[in-house]
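INFO batch 0412 | record 1 of 1 | parsing
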Amino acid sequence: MDKIKQILRGKGGAGFPLIIAITLSLVIIFTGISEYFRLMIIAQGVRDAVQAAVISTVVENYDDVYHGVREGYSGAYQPYAGDFEESLDYGDIYDRLDGILGLSYNSGYHEKRTPDGKLEFKAWNLNVDIRNAPFASGDHASDRFEADSTILLEVPVSFGGKLLPPMTIKVKTSAGYTPRF
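INFO prediction complete | emitting tokens
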């Protein structure tokens, strides 16, 4: 450590390459951290958009769920021929997701591109599992109307050129209906 201090304080210019190496190392570290935050911000934005789209679907079911609550049940059921049948609205979650994020559909993927046509990220394989509340279960927190969703997200990494593969993750969200009264 004392030797490094002597090199840096020396008047002969021997510390110049060391200062360049330290500066380049800091730039690489800062760029890597910035890329990590960029990937996390995109993933969090997609997760929030998927959750908003799924919540819209859950909200579409409010009328059926409310009907069940009013009758003393909490599920999405409708009377049918002297009995009850399940009544769920699935909606078009991809359409809502495209509207929220400004995505375009291309070859099975919902993509976001920059103005110069470079791929920013793409999403596909949306799965939504809607769990209707059991019929006549009463008001229990574990027996509520819920929708769990997953979607695959791929974000090209712009750090390190073509050396690093794109980030591919499965984004999971959950939404549920909670009666207010």
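INFO post-check: Residues 61 and 89 are 6 Å apart (CA to CA).
INFO record closed
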